[in-house]
Amino acid sequence: MRVATWNVNSIRARAGRVVDWLVREDIDVLGMQELKCKPEQFPYDVFQEAGYDVELHGLSQWNGVGFASRLPMDDVEITFPSQPGFAKGVESSEAPKEARAIGVTVDGVRLWSLYVPNGRELDDPHYVYKLDWLAKLRDETEGWIKANPEQPLALMGDWNVAPLDTDVWDPAVFEGHTHTSPAERDAFAAFQTKGLLTDVVRPRLPEGYTYWDYKQLRFPRNEGMRIDFILGSKPFADLVTSARIDRNERKGDAPSDHVPVVVDLDVDPGDDDDRPMIF
Hints:
It is globular and about 45 Å long. The protein has five helices and twelve strands. It has helices spanning about 10-25, 45-50, 125-145, 180-190, 235, and strands spanning about 1-5, 30-35, 55, 65-70, 75-80, 100-105, 110-115, 155-160, 200, 230, 240-245, 260-265. The two termini are about 15 Å apart.
């Protein structure tokens, strides 16, 4: 089973490009972020014509997460139970929850597509929200694994954290800003303590960015960031046979500012005769 994550940065602007890539690269399941649309605005037809069903969570022209899969998706879950909300000047317990998390199960593998809050600036309430969001998700993850330790689980998406200095083109540029602050890096590292999850891509690809800003010729200069990750439980990591970052998807007409991250899993599909054939 080939699984990928991609911050598509507006699916209505890039539906054709995303579907062309899905078919060309033989992707079974894609977790998407920054859909930037409500469910009634999603371009379902182009996905369905290519053999993909879609599950999504979108509330407005901002945020939005979803899955496109040519395999059956079960146990669809919108947001994680303790997910905090955000509205400036409103306590998190009362603030509305944004469209930042959706979970599905495919061939027994539990997958979450996540769009972690940006944080904006270190003194912004959104930064506090980001750290709280990550802490709550980490606690949920520990609970999921304790409840079902044998089930492969992966949290994948745009984490908006660059865990290592090598994950940004120049660490000095980020001093005093979000994405590389000690608190954010600690929050990301917490998912990998006690053997909870591991980055299943980095051992195979120690270097490589997943995001380049549109401004200041960042991509031609390779001034990027590595902020898109697939973190998996041990049962998930044991299934991974290969991984890649598809850098070429930052090229061409109207690309997203992020690129796909892909892993291959050694999952036995059993006697599933409903799997679509791609010619």
